[in-house]
Write a structure and sequence with these properties.
Two copies of one chain form a homodimer. Chain A is mostly helical and 96 residues long. The first copy, chain A, has a single domain, classed as Cytochrome c-like domain (Cytochrome Bc1 Complex, Chain D, domain 2). Chain A contains five helices and no strands. Chain A is globular, with a radius of gyration of 13 Å. The interface between A and B is medium-sized, with 25 and 25 residues.
Chain lengths: 96, 96
């Protein structure tokens, strides 16, 4: 049966655990050279992950990303894209 | 003398006229496969433009971007990055 958005988001969130060190749990990265992913277009995120996986992005930082992307399945990419495209910055208990 | 942020933003805005067809005047693109640029990290935007200019991004859509990036100077890239990193969606007169 069809998954709810919440279930879909949760799946992406689990898969994103390895990504958030650089890209931030809410997709806002803490490093100037790492892109924010929050609210990014889902199809673009999938296309970018595919480009890293297929070594079609080969500039300095891309090499690092290739390592992360090479083992991702198409479904992984969709789940990650869904998560980062929909994640919000949780301002209720903003960490000091 | 030092430029004001407003002057810096205006310079980037002029240079971005060719970009906004795909990426949106406020950096929110209307096409699922074109990335949003609003609020993106400046250094990342410069690094991405350099990668396109140096043909270090060669996936399908990248080819299109190479054409736009190939004539950009380093200063152009910084000005464009400043603009898109700082542009906001103007909600005062939101187009219907």
């Amino acid at each position: 049966e069809e998954m709810t958005p919440e279930q879909q988001f949760e799946i992406g969130k689990q898969k994103a655990l390895v990504c958030i060190t650089c890209h931030g749990a809410d997709g806002i990265s803490a490093t100037e050279t790492y892109p924010n992913l929050q609210g990014q277009k889902q199809q673009y995120l999938v296309a970018a992950l595919k480009a890293y996986k297929q070594n079609q992005r080969v500039d300095g930082l891309a090499i690092l990303m290739q390592g992360y992307a090479k083992d991702l399945s198409d479904q992984d990419m969709k789940d990650l894209a869904y998560y980062f495209s929909n994640v919000k910055t949780d301002t209720t208990h903003q960490s000091q």
